[in-house]
Each structure stands twice: as structure tokens, then as C-alpha cells.
């Protein structure tokens, strides 16, 4: 069982203003369930991938109803549920205990990279988020996606840079999704040096966590070993890996264990792998993941949780 | 006869601030005539299609006078009349009882998609609408058109995202018109998965209603059956279908009945089909449509209303 | 002799806020000389056409001095003199009785449509105009030029839409110049359906008046007959025609008479035809035009005024 | 000897607000040394032409030190010294008696017109200038460069238009540099009709002075005769000519005399011709120029001043 | 031993407002360690060059941990450590004595100049920096990178111009990184006239220091001799040279000595050459550099410091 961290072990960045310091620690402790590790349940794909991630072959029919996401977050175990402001606004009243992370920008997948370099624009200002927080919604932080290497990189860097400064000043934590992509990046999207570079950029912007794709294996190094370089490059910004498309749960849990224990990731960011399953199975998978991320369970223990042979709760 | 909903059955999103909660419920009940269903009379085509929708072969000469639209809204039965701010400003004093929905953006049809991907820009800020509401104009909400898949998608997503947050904070309801369009979309504008994706995007932005084109029939499924998937993807955002070009009234009413009872649409958004007729005929059509949308009438009952053999009023 | 309208006959749009209602009626009555008809003296060509409209063959040498414009407006009869803010600022102190309409945007004619679609950008904010009005300058309204069908249409629609809302809130009237133009429009700039479409757009933006080019004759209909369709499409927005290049005065006056009495135009917008003449002749032409526009004179009566055989004053 | 003008002879434009009226007259009188004529010492080329105007063959080595410019302005005779805000900020404390005109925009000459149409962007807001004035720096006005006919013309027109309104409201004078340039202009940059058009645009924007290139001679007219047309087109905006590259002093003085006495220019704007010389020679040239501009000296008298055979001071 | 300058020898530019004057002098004295010379430790490459400057062949493994940079700045001797706001925010609480210079803009090296001209966008507003300063972080100034000759030059000039005005008004010093680059510059990036031009631009923007690349040797002149021209062109803006890629320490120190004593540079800006070494070696190199920059040591003395045979501290 992983020891909990204490409030004074939280390394509060200096752009968290004095008045917001306690709020930041509250949010950091809530998001990491008091462990310093992040189990992020990614629910922003209804824009990013449109309905293709929620309906079709191999996807449980329950996933067609957007409320499925909230049920999983509510009944399962996760640190934060990440989604667009509007999505959260429509359901949060019925799921008040979930920790919400507002994804500030999004794009659809209709325009492909072959047509134009990717740009994901900010959907609204921070005021719109703060107003919801003040109205009592349990918002602990923000998310923003950055496509480094896109011809629109500068706009995204600026939007992210400004948001992080303002969010920290208000005590909110910030998670960056960084995906190098565009004509300039080509097939090097998951090259180890690209991923490590992305991690360093997140640090320079001041993010609390950065979500990257797992680097490819290369030069005799496994993906997790290459990930360790990226984790080091991220410095005091915690690095977590995107989950990718749905795979067999034990395989997924094993990869996650390696990412954390070899790659020095400080958690996970998982979406499709969870919500494309039935509610019961999805709930069990969040618990299995959290057993690893939040309680240093072994792969075997986690698989038992997934299989319903053991339970995990906070 | 469809039972009315009560005020406390309205699912108020959490971005409606406390002070605006009663106003939002008022607006929602007014727009849906207390049913939760939306009968939207679309009157924004004088920009979108210029004069071609209002004058020419097959169009009643009455439609050339813009006041025709207001007479229909006033004498007929509808939930809201949607039009640009300026149009409303010129006539609303004489038609104070109509529920107005301000269409916030518009473009003409002069530049075709083959020349450039579509962008419809916001015509003015929200202040301009709130000032009119404060001056006593009966404005219940806003509309905004989004062309997903356009190279300008990000700008429209941002304008819509910000408007929804601000409108809800002020107690206004928001209807999105979402039409996937552009080089990236090609001939898939009405493909079922495209329409369902659009519906999910509307939810993530937090819209109250989304107006989409009816999906094509495909894979042995009718348009209405495909629509049911989109309605599910929209979650708590109500989905309604655009009416398209003028067709025979019984055919139109039958399609609408299917959209609602098979496709789970929560109403209709109809323009040309109504206003291209004489005032008397147009008024009867609004009543026939509303009989279906607002009172669960059968197609046969609705046709009788259209034919003047029965009346319908609220 | 055309009867004057009374103040309570002015149809004040609802975006004119309560505090600005009397100012709007004042401005409307001043601009239309109490008739509801507009005689607009267009003096914005020093940017639009640079010096080519003011110096050269067939142009009276008096026109080279910009003060010529103010002398005409002062000694002649017109409703408003339209010009850029800076031009007005330089001379208005010496011509305090002229009604000024500030043209808010302008472009030169150096970049041709074959090189790039036209965009005419806003030259300054509304504050700059209001400050001058507060300082006592007799400003009754604003003007803005829109090139529908240009690839920059959306920017101009947004600038115009916002300006109209703000100007009305301050009691100022607004005249739109709408010229469909650009690659998408090609040679249909003056097609009847294009002009009628432009008229409808002006209404949807909430303009008080719209200045369009006279449509071409077509399908057995004269230009004036085609204009009647556009006037109808404009609804409560008054339509006036641009004067175009200098022609013989009787021909010009006859065309104007037809525009008003067949085409239902509510006035005229004339520039070069007036100012390219000597002061005396220009003054007489403003009076001849105003005799038709503001007093329903016959062409014959107006020609007498132009010939100095009769006088016209308000 | 040219008679001085009195304060009440200054034609104050109506956009100079009442509170700023005395400041405007002060600045106008200071800039024109009480004559209504402008001797502008142009020192903005360190950005416009980079170091090429200040170092190299034919340029006195003294010109390499930027302080050279301030020494000339201080010891010589000129109306205003024009330079970028930052340049002025670095030296003004040591040269407090110079009248400064802040050049608000600038571009380098690295990107040629053959690569892209020119755009010179505003370097900072007006507040940055007003703060310096309030701190006691002797700032009398602003300058802005406009490339008419560039594809970026609209942005520069808007920046200039807004700045003039705000500067006048604060009592500052404004000088526009207008150079028609770009693909659309081609080799007509100095055509008489182009220059005259530029002059009219300056008036419509409300500038106090406009700096243009001398038009070419054409159609049997000299450059100065063609300039007279431009001066007339400028109306109440005073027109001055750019000096161009360094030429023999007597030739330069003769051209200036013609510009003023034949071309009706109201002064000069000279840079390289002055500062590329040694301090002593540069100082003498400013005096020779000022003798013509500010005191209606003959060319012969001015040459004597340049040759050190006569002195000129205010 | 170089004599210290006194507070009243600091040439405070006039855009430093009265209230900020003492803060500016404090910051200038701190950044230059009371010498008027700048030893800038450049730590912004984690964005500019991504992880390639921090991990790989020839780079000490210590450099992979971002905290390495702070340890060097803390234990070594430098004037300021330059890095992005977010990077500083994450570590400054543990390294409170370092003088921080916030690098306001950054871009990655993914998009090459062959694909698009470079633009480095501002990452956040100045408020975000001032808030951190108010919270007690030891921030003495700002940095901004300008790519002159890029097609995006105008945006960078405007961002830099505005930032300098605002930073000075708040008592912060500003260092510009100016690298002429883009299609228009081609292989003339380090041509002497290009570098000298860049220096002059920095002055016109009002920068306190400008960092340029050392010019190439040409026309029988060494790089340092050519640098002297640029230093002169910079006037009262201090010029320092970028360090470039890692070279042998004695060679580096010798080049620096020439830059200062032949090229009239007022310091150095060094990054990779320092941080790619082990902590001990890096610390010794900062001391060796500072011996030259801040104490006029000879190359031999500095090499001894680097070799650990002598120490240097302030």
C-alpha cells in the first residue's frame, strides 16, 4: 500500500498566489487522491473523435449515452474526470462528488493532418470555469491540448501559457495533453526524443501534469525505458501516458505498471479503454487501474480487481 | 395530448448561475411551450440564402415582405422565431408576443464551399442582445451555426463555446445549428456517423438544443432510425432536424412524426417550408407542425389542421 | 409637395435604448429633413477612388480643394454629408450646420478585385465618433461599406453588425453601403437577385438605410422595376441607390425619379455627379435632387431647379 | 522673413477635445516653430533601413553612434525629431529641449516587396507614449507609416485612423508617412496621381501633416508642379516631402525651395541627407533647411548658411 | 579588477516611470552585479531546442534533470538566469537567491525555416510575471526573441515593443534576443551588417541589452572587429553575444575576451556551453566566464578559474 503524501509535501509552484495556496493544495490532493499520483479518466473524445469512440463494433451500447461517462466516474475510482465545460455543465448536478477537470480546447477529427496542421482552439475563457466553480461545481483543474510542431504551435503555446498562469493564480491544477504532430513532425510523433522534448515543454509552461503518448521502443530500449528519459525531462511536472485504443485489460494494466515503475510516470490518463465497456466492467477497470496508480498494486493484484475477485476503493 | 412538464422537471445546467436560474426556466418553458419540445421557426435565411428563399417561382409573393415572417410567428403557433438581431429589432415592437431567438452569426451563400471552407462569423457581442432584452424585447435565447470539418472550425467552436457559457450565465437558452461541411467532409455531410458526431459536439459545448440535418438512410436503416443514434449521442442536449427545402405538407408532417417518435428528436426547426406559403397556409402549417411537436398529434390529425379541418392552439 | 412626417411616425427600432430614443428621432428627422426620405451626399471617395474623382478631365478644378465638398453641403440642400471622420474633423468647425454621417470604413482602389477580394476595414472605434458628437459636432449617424461575397465578408458583417447595435444604442442612424463583389460574385454584381439579397442582409443587420447599386434591367423588366423587388426585400430598411459616374443632369434626375416612384427607393446617395461640378452648378444639382427626393417634384420641375429657373429650399 | 502665425490662427480640428485644445496649439506651435511650417528631422531609419544608412562608404563615421542624431537635433535647427519610442527613451533625458515625434510603427527592409507586400505594425499602444509625456519628456506628436496599395493596407489604415483620433483627443499632432507600395502599385509609387491620392487619404484620416515622396515629373510638368496638385488634394493637412538619399546640399536646398514655393509644400522631412554628414556639417544643413522652411529664405541665402557664411537660428 | 559602477551612473531610460526608478536601478545593479556588464545564463532551450540540448552524446547525464540549471545558477556566478515563466515557477522557491529573467516567448525547433518563417509567440501577459514578482520571486527582468526578416517580424516587433514599454514602466530590465532569420535573410544571418542592423533595432525598441550571434569574420576583419560596429550601432543598449554550441572552454573564454575587449560587448549570454557539463564543471565555467565579464580577468586567469586553480566569487 502506497503511503499517502501530506499537504506540506505538495510542491506548490510560486505562481500559485498566496490567497490560492490552500485551494491549490486541496485540488492537488483531491486530484491525486492524496498520493501525488494522477488517475485521469479522459472523457473529451466526443469532440476529438466524435461519435466513433462511443458507438460501433466492439463498443458496449451503454457508451452511446453520454451519462455512461459520469456513472463510471461516480461508481468507479479515479482522480479526475476530464471533459469539456459544456458536458460537465449538463450532468454535474447529478454527479456532485466527481472531481472535474475542464478540458479548455478541442477539435474534431474531420480535418486530417494531411489537409492542414492541427490547431485546437480554446473554447471559452477561464471566467466561464471559475463561475461554475463558484456556483459549487467540484472543479479541481484545467486541461489543454498542444500540438507541438504544428504550424499553429505558437497560438497553442500562448493559450496554454496564459491559462496556466491564470489557473495557478486561482488555485487550479493544470494538465497538458502534448502531441507533437504536423507536417514538420511526420512519423516522429512517438519518437523518444520527441516525447521527451514535449515533456520539457510542459515543464517550461509550468504545467502540473503532462499527458503524452508512450514513446516507441528503440535502440534496444523498451517503451517504458524511453519513457523514463521523458519523465526526467519533465522535472517537477508529473508525466502520465495516454491510454490509446482499447486493448485487453491485463495487457493494459501491465503496460501501465511498467510506465510507472520503469518509466517513472506518475499515473495514467485513460479514456476509451474504460468507457467502451459496460458500466460494470468499466467500473472494475477504473478500480484496477487505480490499484496500480494510487496504491502501487502489482499487475496480478490489479487483474484480480478487474476480474471482480478483489475490490479496490479509496 | 402530451402532458406538460413542470418547472422543476427542467434540467437546469450548472453553468446557469443562481441569479439566472428562474429566468432560464422561464425561457425554457416559453420556448418549449411548457412541453420540453421545441418548435423553432427559422427566419435567418435572408442572410444565409439571400433573397432566393423569399422570391421566385413556387414562392408566395407575400414572402417578399419580411414582415410576413413576423405575421406567421404572431398568428401561427411556434415555440420560438429565430432571426438575426437586426431583423428582430426592426419589427419586434409590433409583434411583442413572439418568443425571439437571436441568431448570432450568419453568412451569405455567395462564396461556395468549392471556393473556400465555410465560416459564419459572430455578428455582434452578447451585450447587444442583453440590452434589447432589458429594453423589454421578448428574447428567450440565442442561436449559432457551426460548420464542423471546415478549416475555420476552431473559430466557430470558440465563438459558440464562449457564447453558451455567457448566455447560460444570463438565463438564456442556446440552440446550435451544426452542419459538418468543407473539403474534409465532402459528401459525408449527412452520413449517420457525421450527424451523430455533430450531436455529441453540441452536448460538449453545453447547448440546450442542436439543429442538424436528418441523416441519410443507410445499412438498412431509415433516416429516422439513424437519427435515433444521433439523439442518443446528444445526451441531455435536445436534438431537432432542419426542415430543408419546401415539400408537400403531408410528407413533411410524416417525416417530422418519424423524427420525433422513431428518431427521438425533441421537436423541429422549420423555415422555408412555412414562410414560402401564403400567410393563411403558413399559419395552418405552423399549427399542424406544433400539433405533432407540442401535442403528440398523429400525422392524420396534423394534416387535418393543415387542411383547416381542425384547429390547434396552445 | 410631399407631406412631412411627424416624430411619432418614425419607426424606432427596439435596439435604440430608451435614453437614446429622442436622439434617434432627432437624427432621423434631421437626416431625412422631416420627410422619411434620405438625400445623402457621398463624400468618401477621396479614399475609395483617391484623387481620380476630384481632378482630371471633365472635372471642375474647384473639386481639387476638399473644402469644395463642404461648401456644396453648406450652400446646397441635402440630408446628410457622408465622409470619413478625419475629413469631417478638419472642416466641421467652419460648417457647423451640415448634418454629418461618419463613414466608418474605407479602402483605396489600388488593389483590384482581380488581385484580392475586397475588404474595407473599420478606421476607428465608435468612441472616436461619440467624442466628436459630445464636443458639439453635428453628427447624425454612421456609414459602413460591406462587400458581400468577398472572402472577407464575415469580417465586414461582424464589424457592421456590432456598429449598428452600438450606434442605435446611442441614438445614431446607420447607412450601409452594400456592394456584392469578389471572385464569387463575378459579373453578377448588379444582377437583380444579388441586389435584392443585399437589401435583405441590410435589414437583418438592422440598418436604417442601405445604399446599393441600381440593378440591371433584365427579363423584360427595367432597372427601376427590378429595384422595386429589392426595396420590398429591404422591408423596414430604407433603400437608396448609388449615383455612379457623372452623367447628364436631366438623365440623372429622371433615373432618380424612377428609382423612387417605380423602384420604391426612399431617396438617393450621390457623390461624383454633384461634386465634380463647379460650386454653383453642384449647389443647383443638390437642390434639383432634393426637390425630387424630399418634395416629390416632377423631373421637369427638378430640371428647372438645376437650370436655375426655379429654386428649392427647405 | 516669414511672419509668425498666432495661436488663434491654428486651425484646431474638432477631434481635439476641449481639454486638449491648448496642448494641441502648444504642440503645433512648437513643432512648426510658430510658423505653420514643419521641419521634420527623420530619425527612424535604424529600423527601416537598419545599419546601412548609418555606416559605410560616403557616410561620416560619426553617424554610427546613435547619439549623433540627438546632437544634431539639439545643436541644429529643426521643428521635430522623429524616432521610435525606445530610441527617444534612451537619450531624451540628456536632450530635453528637442521636440520629439514618436514614430509609432516600423519595419525592417529585410523582406522585400517582391517577397511580400509591406506591412509596418504598431510597436506599442498610445499609453506608452502618454506615460512618457507625463513623465516630462517633450513629446509633441506621433508619426505612422502607411503603405497604401499593400495587401495589408486595411490594417495600417485602421491603426492610423484610431491613433489619430486618440492622439488628437490628447492634444498631440500626427504626421503620416504615406508610401503607396506593393504588387498593386508596381512602378507607380511616385506617379503624380498616386501621390495626390495619398495626400487625400491623409486628410480623410485627419492627419496634421503628411510626408510623401516627391512625384515624378510628367506630361510636361515638373515634380514641384505635380506636387502642387497633391498639396491641394491634401486640403487642410499640410504636405511635406521625404528627402530621399543624400545629394549635394545646394541641389537639395533648391529642390526644397521649389517644393514649398511651387509645390505648396508646408515644409520638409529630411533624414539621411542630414545625419550622414559630420556633426558640424549636419548642423549647418539643418539650419540651411530651416532657413527655407521656417523663414522663407532664398536658395542662395540657405546655401550661405550651409557653407557657414551666414547663420540661422530661431 | 573592474571598478564597480555606482547607482547614479546607471543611465535610466525615460520610460522608467518615477515610481519605478529605484526598482529599475536595483534590477540593473543586480543583473550586472554592480558592474554594468551582463553575465546571462540562458536556460530557455528546453522549448527552443527541446530535449536535444539536455540529453545525448557529449552531454553530462546531470543535464537531463531540469533542476541542474538551478543548481548551476545557485552555486555558480552569473548575473541572471533566463528561463520561461513556468520553469521558474516550479523551482524558484528552492532557489530564492538567483536573479531571474523571464523569457516571454518561445518556439520549438520542430518547424524548420525551410517550411515556414519563424515566429515565436508571447506565452503570457506581463501581469503573470508581475504577480510572481509581487509574491516575492526575485525577478529582475524580461527576455524576448525577435526574428528580424521573418514574414512574422511585425508581430514580434509589436510584442517586444509593447513589453519593453510596460516592463520599464514597472522597473524591470529587458533583454532582446535578435536573430535575423527567414527566407528573406537566407545565409546572411550572421553577416556583419545584419548583426549591426539588429543591434540598432534593439536600441529603437528601447531594450537594455541585446543578445546577437557573433558576426562572421569578413573583409579582413575578425568577428570581434565586426562586432565592434554592431556594439556602436546599439548605442546605449548593451550588446552581448550568444554562446552557441559547446566548445572547448579555453577557446570559449578567449572568444568572450575578444568580444568584450575588441568587440565592445558588455557581457555574454551563455547556455549550452555551461549546462551540458557536470555540475562541478559547469559551476567552474560560470565563474571563469564571470571573471572575464564581471571583473575584466585575462583569458589566462579565467582558464585557471575553470581549471579549479583559482576561485572567483562576487
UniProtKB/TrEMBL annotation, chains A, B, C, D, E:
The active site is at 179 (proton donor), 211 (schiff-base intermediate with dihydroxyacetone-p). It comes from the Bacteria. Coiled coil: none annotated. Keywords: Lyase, Schiff base. Its EC number is 4.1.2.13. InterPro entries: Aldolase_TIM, DeoC/FbaB/LacD_aldolase, DeoC/FbaB_aldolase, FbaB-like. One of its GO terms (molecular function) is fructose-bisphosphate aldolase activity. It holds the Pfam family DeoC. The keyword Lyase applies. It is an enzyme of class 4 (lyase). Belongs to the DeoC/FbaB aldolase family. FbaB subfamily. This is fructose-bisphosphate aldolase.
Amino acid at each position: 500500500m502506497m503511503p499517502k503524501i501530506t499537504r506540506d509535501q505538495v510542491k506548490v509552484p510560486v505562481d500559485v498566489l498566496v490567497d490560492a495556496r490552500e485551494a491549490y493544495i486541496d485540488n492537488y490532493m483531491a486530484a491525486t487522491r492524496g498520493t501525488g499520483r494522477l488517475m485521469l479518466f479522459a472523457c473529451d473524445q466526443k469532440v476529438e473523435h466524435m461519435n466513433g469512440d462511443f458507438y460501433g463494433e466492439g463498443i458496449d451500447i451503454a457508451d452511446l449515452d453520454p451519462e455512461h461517462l459520469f456513472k463510471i466516474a461516480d461508481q468507479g475510482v479515479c482522480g479526475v474526470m476530464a471533459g469539456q465545460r459544456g458536458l460537465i455543465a449538463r450532468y454535474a448536478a447529478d454527479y456532485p462528488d466527481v472531481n472535474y477537470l475542464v478540458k479548455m480546447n478541442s477539435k474534431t477529427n474531420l480535418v486530417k493532418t494531411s489537409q492542414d496542421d492541427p490547431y485546437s482552439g480554446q473554447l471559452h475563457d477561464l471566467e466561464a470555469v471559475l463561475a461554475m466553480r463558484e456556483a459549487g461545481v467540484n472543479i479541481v483543474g484545467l486541461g489543454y491540448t498542444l500540438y507541438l510542431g504544428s504550424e499553429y504551435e505558437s497560438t497553442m503555446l500562448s493559450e496554454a501559457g496564459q491559462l496556466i498562469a491564470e489557473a495557478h493564480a486561482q488555485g487550479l491544477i493544470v494538465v497538458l495533453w502534448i502531441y507533437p504532430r504536423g507536417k514538420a513532425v511526420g512519423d516522429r510523433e512517438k519518437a523518444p526524443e520527441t516525447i521527451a522534448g514535449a515533456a520539457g515543454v510542459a515543464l517550461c509552461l509550468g504545467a502540473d501534469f503532462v499527458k503524452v503518448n508512450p514513446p516507441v521502443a528503440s535502440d534496444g530500449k523498451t517503451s517504458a525505458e524511453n519513457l523514463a528519459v521523458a519523465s526526467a525531462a519533465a522535472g517537477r511536472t508529473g508525466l502520465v501516458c495516454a491510454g490509446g485504443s482499447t486493448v485487453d485489460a491485463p495487457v493494459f494494466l501491465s503496460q501501465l505498471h511498467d510506465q510507472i515503475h520503469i518509466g517513472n510516470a506518475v499515473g495514467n490518463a485513460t479514456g476509451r479503454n474504460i468507457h467502451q465497456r459496460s458500466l460494470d466492467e468499466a467500473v472494475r477497470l477504473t478500480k484496477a487501474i487505480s490499484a496500480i496508480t494510487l496504491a502501487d498494486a502489482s499487475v496480478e493484484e490489479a487483474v484480480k480487481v478487474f476480474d471482480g475477485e478483489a475490490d479496490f476503493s479509496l
